[in-house]
Amino acid sequence: MNLDCSYLVTPGLAWLVAGTAKFAINSIRARKLAFGLIGYGGMPSNHSAIVSSTAVLVALKEGLGHPAFGVALTLAFIVMLDANSLRRQIGRHAESINRIAAREPAHAPLRERMGHSALEIAAGIATGSIVAIGVKAVLG
């Protein structure tokens, strides 16, 4: 059995690259180190980068007709639709709840940045694709 570590390395590296880019972008926008903004939401989408890197790597190594590509692409679409619709709505609900609960001193505010815009998802796709192409070039 031949172990191909590129399928393990690629999504991990995509997560690291996207997370580092997100931290840098948030820190520049906030004009300070933005440790409090680590997590869901923001540019680029970590989730989109991870699933895109996997789908692109499968496409490059196995081909577009391989069943694994179909599975990876389906998973990628589900994750990106969830980030753009459900998680964005959760963030909007958190905003409303936080406004209502602001009168309650014991209320810990809910995280409002949950989902992603189409641009943040597109940036995640680009990040994941570049990582997959790089891993394929280096590891084969």
Automatic annotation (TrEMBL):
UniProt lineage: Bacteria, Pseudomonadati, Pseudomonadota, Betaproteobacteria, Rhodocyclales
InterPro entries attached to this UniProt entry: DUF212
Pfam family, one: DUF212
Protein name: Divergent PAP2 family protein
